[in-house]
Automatic annotation (TrEMBL):
Organism (species): Chloropicon primus
Name by which UniProt lists this protein: Glutathione S-transferase
Tagged with keyword RNA-binding: no
Alphabetical list of CDD domains matching this protein: GST_C_Sigma_like (cd03192), GST_N_Sigma_like (cd03039)
GO biological process, one term: glutathione metabolic process
InterPro entries membership: Glutathione-S-Trfase_C-like, Glutathione-S-Trfase_C_sf, Glutathione_S-Trfase, Glutathione_S-Trfase_N, GST_C, GST_superfamily, Thioredoxin-like_sf
Length: 220
């Protein structure tokens, strides 16, 4: 019998980019949950926001439906969406063991810490900071963030990979933490962020390089 609130179908609203949609789309493929992937254009996003359909004014947003097609909830926040999808799919990508689920959560939350400064450096106005005075200033800030914030945080991820017997970040099976981390690491390593060259992460550790390559091979 389905647990109370268990979803049978998910409808994702996100832009036609990887971004915060990729881990959700990848999880959908892993779980086999019925999944509708709505790729939203900028003006459609604004219309959704104006109609109050984006709980916190941003995407991704996902609608969850039960087996009788009743809307269970419409929620924002990539991590909340990932957890709910996983928990509705027999904990695929998560764990029914509360301790292991907590370890997965901790890495999922740490993904935010690892990439927060870099994301903020791309959209400074979103967090109330001034735009860059020049392209040089922008690239100098990116390099500073990469060296002073990202690199020490990556060291914790590399340590976790070294400690992991399975090769996945939380030590067990492939989890939603891996999907979020893999997607962000691929993004940062892909040469799309000014001031961070393609392959920037490859020299950090062979294990990290192999971890990123695994996502590129399996999930691109
Ligand atoms: N904490 C949120 C952040 C969501 C977010 O940053 N969404 C961006 C796209 S990746 C967005 O909607 N940008 C459009 C805007 O803010 O106008 C999450 O993890 O889902």
């Amino acid at each position: 019998m389905a647990a109370r609130g268990e979803a049978s179908r998910v409808k994702l609203f996100y832009f036609d980019i990887r971004g915060k949609g990729a881990p959700i789309r990848w999880l959908a493929a892993q779980t086999g949950i019925e999944f509708e992937d709505v790729r939203v254009k900028r003006e459609e996003f604004h219309a959704m926001r104006d109609k109050g359909l984006t709980p916190f004014g941003q995407l991704p947003v996902a609608e969850f439906y039960d087996k009788d097609n009743n809307l269970l909830c419409r929620i924002a926040q990539m991590r909340a969406i990932l957890r709910y999808m996983a928990r509705s799919s027999g904990n695929k990508g998560y764990s029914s063991d509360l301790a292991q689920a907590a370890v997965i959560d901790s890495f999922l939350d740490f993904e935010e810490d690892v990439f927060n400064a870099m994301r903020s450096s791309i959209f400074p106005a979103r967090i109330g900071l001034p735009e860059y005075a020049s392209d040089e200033a922008k690239e100098a800030m990116r390099r500073k963030v990469a060296e002073e914030v990202l690199t020490p945080k990556l060291a914790y991820l590399i340590q976790a990979l070294e400690n992991s017997k399975s090769g996945w970040i939380a030590g067990g099976d492939l989890s939603i933490a891996d999907l979020a981390l893999g997607s962000s690491l691929m993004w940062l390593n892909g040469g799309v962020v000014d001031g961070v060259p393609a392959g920037y992460l490859d020299g950090k550790s062979p294990l990290l390089k192999e971890y990123i390559a695994r996502f590129a091979a399996e999930f691109s």
